[in-house]
Amino acid sequence: MESASAAEALIPLFKLEKVLDQDQAGRRITLLGTVSSENALLTLERAAFPSSLDTIAALQSTLTNVKNLGANDIYAWYLANIQPSVFAPDLKINLIYPCTPAHIKKYSPQVTRVVSETPSVYRDYVRPYMQRKREEGRLNWVYNIIEGRTEQEDIILRQSTDLGNDREGFLLLPDMNWDRKTMGSLRILGLVERRDLWSLRDLRRRDVGWLRRMMEKIEESVEKIYGVERDMLKLYVHYQPTYYHFHIHITTTSHDPSATQATLKAFSLPNLIAQLETLAPECDSLGDTSITYTIGEASELWAEVFGPLKERRLPESSK
Amino acid sequence: MESASAAEALIPLFKLEKVLDQDQAGRRITLLGTVSSENALLTLERAAFPSSLDTIAALQSTLTNVKNLGANDIYAWYLANIQPSVFAPDLKINLIYPCTPAHIKKYSPQVTRVVSETPSVYRDYVRPYMQRKREEGRLNWVYNIIEGRTEQEDIILRQSTDLGNDREGFLLLPDMNWDRKTMGSLRILGLVERRDLWSLRDLRRRDVGWLRRMMEKIEESVEKIYGVERDMLKLYVHYQPTYYHFHIHITTTSHDPSATQATLKAFSLPNLIAQLETLAPECDSLGDTSITYTIGEASELWAEVFGPLKERRLPESSK
């Protein structure tokens, strides 16, 4: 697609075949169809309202088909339409064309399962899976940042060995999903320098002091650089994470929480530290506890480990 | 508001004064204004898309002002408008009229704070606060259900003393926020019969067996009654909860997670059980750990406890 007008010309050519998925409380819909006989995915998403008073007033003046659904005392609720207006878009649209079967699978609805990972399931199946992922070289982009080869201009803070322990270094950089401007949706990524932590499973009782110092330093830095008060910052890690090098997600409480912050997926760092602090003596790390979390059926971990376990078959890593 | 047409007649009378709040990724906006010189709140919310193929095709045919924002390889993204159509509403609207200052406060944006509740802050300030709330009689509706006086027709399961222990009873009923039909948004409430558990803080190591049996029975019952596979069920509790009688929220993984499931607010039951199982010997309950969570600045707990603590003043309960 070379020009805006070429891209715009594709939209009327989209021939709808199937509603593939609908999410975000029904406000996003993904359609499968064709453009010039090739597969294409079209995603329609309700746009945000404009926020200026004048534009809202203009929008309000176009309300039509107002239909009352119910009323009780001082409360009433309705459905309505608005006239399209050039200064307030109704929709955001994404087009993928031509798209592959992999795209269609990615945008099809996926069943999410709750799995209970005991210490032995972790040791026998999940940790070997993590090791395979690490060996596939998927962490090169992380090492490139840590070793100073790429994205150095993005680094907000590099706290290297100067905490008196060469295993205490970490760095902060903007999350690639953040526009780096809107404070209400601030997202920062914290990457530790040490490479022996694959996930929260590797956090040990002896790491508590370091984790506390790191948390303190992250909050202090983000407060200083972005002016967000530290008691409005959320620090959490994912389990399962997308990649197996320990990293921390930092966002603010003014962010509407979504799936990425959901229980059974996001584990808050301060509560993990509290758990480590009150861990039974026979446990040395969070690898010695059961962890319950959600994963998609389309994930490799489901296909290779938890799907087979559910059917009482041996997972792949043990074959 | 006596009739639909009377309610509909109010909408054109709304005089916009101020944008009070905008959330849900910008797709909901709350407006403060007046109707006939009295305060009114108008909430505009982007409606869900229709899901039938024909309606989507009709909607697609009305796309106008398609403006390409960018393109890269097979990906392109746009803004656009659609023509209003009687079979697909663009908006949901709520009107509160006349509204009070309390309504305006409730719908104004609220700062959310992250607080760290140590065992001593819990013991000295938060538990006394909980006790005051319990004494205000706010739990009567819970006791009415447990003792069989109200909502008995709604009860899905009553597991009373027949588990061999008179402290093991609990019951399940649909959450009042669930329409009782849409399986994708299933929400069930689990209420324990015993009254000595105010919150997750009261869960003890000795409760592990009971909690596991209760979880098993809840999953089995919801699977049997609603046909939702048990590994698609999420069980979690809130801290702080809305009321101080221990209760469990049950929903499905097909539900888009929102703030009610967010980390630092929702604590998954299986992970709390795992934490209890690996708790250090000097701790008897989750009251002996630090818990970090989010609360709104407009909450009583912020006003009475955590706000004063932040400013190094004595919380109210100690005065």
Task: Outline the structure in words.
Chain A is an alpha+beta fold and 319 residues long. Chain A is built from eight helices and 14 strands. In chain A, the strands form four sheets. The first copy, chain A, has a six-stranded antiparallel sheet with strand order 8-9-10-12-11-13. A four-stranded antiparallel sheet of chain A has the order 1-2-3-6, covered by helices on one side. Chain A has a two-stranded antiparallel sheet with strand order 4-5. The radius of gyration of chain A is 24 Å and the shape is globular. The two termini of chain A are 46 Å apart. The model of chain A has no long low-confidence stretch (mean pLDDT 90). At the A-B interface, α1, β1, β2, α2 and β4 of A face α1, β1, β2, α2 and β4 of B. β6 (91-96) of chain A pairs antiparallel with β5 (75-81) of chain B, so a sheet runs across the interface.
Question: Order of strands across the biggest sheet of chain A?
Answer: 8-9-10-12-11-13
Principal-axis shape of chain A: globular
Rounded to the nearest angstrom, the radius of gyration of chain A is: 24 Å
The multimeric state of the shown protein is homodimer
Largest interface: A-B, 104 and 104 residues
Please mark out the parts of chain A with pLDDT under 50 across 5 or more consecutive residues, or reply none: none
SSE blueprint:
The structure is a homodimer of 319-residue chains.
Chain A: H1 4-10, E1 15-23, E2 28-35, E3 38-46, H2 53-60, E4 64-72, E5 75-81, E6 91-96, H3 101-107, E7 112-117, H4 119-135, H5 140-146, E8 157-159, E9 170-174, E10 187-192, H6 208-226, E11 233-238, E12 247-252, E13 266-268, H7 269-277, E14 291-296, H8 300-310
Antiparallel strand pairs in A: 1-2, 2-3, 3-6, 4-5, 7-14, 8-9, 9-10, 10-12, 11-12, 11-13
Helix pairs in contact in A: 6-7
